[in-house]
Amino acid sequence: MSLSTALQNKILLDAINMDLVSCFVNNKFDVIIFNPPYVVTESAECGGCGIEASWAGGIKGREIIDRLLDMIPKYLSPDGIFYLLLIKENIPTEVVQIMFKYGFKSETIITRQVRNEQQVVLKFYR
To answer: What is a single cellular component term in the Gene Ontology annotation (predicted)?
Structure first.
């Protein structure tokens, strides 16, 4: 939710513009929810400042996702839960394998078809 959307709906919100979790130092979170840019695109489209930053995921749609996966063990509390939205093209089974190597179990919360996307929400926990 953007700050302007929150204000229009009379919701108090502190907004921070940062690269993933780069502004947090030595913080641990009980819940991390990530709705990433997951569309398969050219790598050059990733990480821009334009509207494409909201969808451009690069190779396999996972360039941004994979960067955060590497950070989850450091920022998630020992009993914490990490929720991640993916599409079929992101190869969710590979994501599950990556998180397993970090010591995380997983379960599928929901799978649904939304227009042309087969979406899945995964839950990771220790």
So the answer is: eRF1 methyltransferase complex
